[in-house]
Specification:
two-stranded antiparallel ribbon, 77 residues, 2 helices
Amino acid sequence: MSVLQGRLDQIIEDTNQFIIKTINKSAQIIPGKMQREEHWEYPLIALREAVINAICHRDYQVSGNVQVRIFDSRLQI
């Protein structure tokens, strides 16, 4: 478990980097081309938005933290 502290923009960036390091990424060779296409387990833009929403819309009057939990079958924010 990691606890991130600091400016909100840095917490968002650090959280996204943690998620990217933890989730799976697959690669596929494109037929007829010398290229590979990478696919993340979850869309990165959706993950970033979910993290930002969780931070912005949490109830700051209640003690607690925004938590990101990554399981084999799901990601929970």
